[in-house]
Amino acid sequence: MSKRVRIAMLGAALALAALAAGPPVVSAITATLFVTSTLEEPVNVNNERIRLKTKEPADVHVQEARFQPGDLVDWHNHPGFALIAVKSGTMSFYDPDCTRHVIGPGEAFVESGGPTKAANEGSVEALFYVTYVVPQSSPRIVPTDPPPCAQ
Question: What pTM does this model have?
């Protein structure tokens, strides 16, 4: 075996090891960020038994996401929360205790705390809209290690 082949094989093995130990996987989803806005003042709304309260300025992001069958966002956190409304297809969302929630058209789900995982385990594209509310200047999503139940 030539030196070049051995170096290439070593490089491939190191790359695979880095992938296995690297950050969580995000597959080839299509995401379109429609708008980012800021709630400059704290909010304390309590109307018709629905409450939203912030203590400091918060960013609001509205995004469309399209997941093909097999697409996923591996284990992650949201600094605030993600309110998800599914338009078509189905999505599976996993809680920190690995409980699976399958959400279909006309249904909604909230991701908060974490870690959480999102995957299209169906056979058709899933289309959904996400409204993120996060502390000002925070990322919408933060990759994290899987919980003990997923290891």
Answer: 0.79
3-state secondary structure (DSSP) of residue 119? strand
Nearest Cα to Cα of residue 31 among 69, 63, 70, 79 = 63
Which pLDDT tens digit goes with each residue over 90-123?
999 999 999 999 999 999 999 998 899 999 999 9
Q: Can you give the residue range of the structural domain that contains 137?
A: 24-150
Does the residue 9 lie in any domain? no
CA distance linking residue 6 with residue 36, whole number of Å = 49
Residues in the chain: 151
- Give the three-class secondary structure for 84: strand
Strands 126-135 and 142-143: unpaired
